[in-house]
Amino acid sequence: MKCPNCSETLLMSDKNGVEIDYCPNCRGIWLDRGELEKIMERSADHYSKKENYEADSKRYGYGDHGHSSHKKHPHKKKESFLSDFFDF
User: Fold this and answer.
1) Closest CA to 43 of 84, 87, 88, 1
2) Rounded to whole angstroms, how far apart are CA atoms 38 and 60?
3) Cα–Cα distance, 53 to 56 (Å, whole number)
4) Dist. CA 20–CA 84, nearest whole Å
5) Which of 58, 54, 13, 56 lies closest to 32 in space, CA to CA?
6) Closest alpha carbon to 85 in 12, 20, 11
7) What's a Pfam family this protein contains (predicted)?
8) For the packed helices 50-60 and 35-47, what is the interaxial angle rounded to 10 degrees?
9) Dist CA 12 CA 10 (whole Å)
């Protein structure tokens, strides 16, 4: 299958049971029907457990708006558990 954006051949990757098509050239990510729903469903399952939310809060710094962390990495976005899906 070709990338709709740049016509490069898409590569496939299985991430936690969800098959993701991605473009190595433009780094676009393409999901088939139902795959976004699977990702959203798994995120809801993940965060429905308090211990997962607390662990991710510490790991990724959710709610941490302190100025000292912003000065160290002013342009780096905070990661979430979804970054595990999209680590190409």
Assistant:
1) 84
2) 22
3) 5
4) 12
5) 13
6) 20
7) Zn_ribbon_TFIIB
8) 100
9) 7
8 A C-beta contact, residue 10 and residue 16:
no
The 10s digit of each residue's pLDDT in 11-32 is 998 877 888 899 999 989 888 8
What's phi and psi for 68, nearest 5 deg?
Answer: -65, -40
Write the CB contacts of 88 (distance below 8 Å, at least 6 apart in sequence).
Answer: 13, 22, 24, 27, 29
Through-space distance between the first and last CA atoms of the chain, rounded to whole angstroms: 18
Tokens representing 28 are 């676009």
Three-state SS for 10?
coil
Q: One-letter amino acid identity for 21?
A: D
> Where on the phi/psi map is residue 61: left (φ > 0), alpha (ψ -120 to 50), or beta?
left
| Identity of the residue numbered 62 | Y
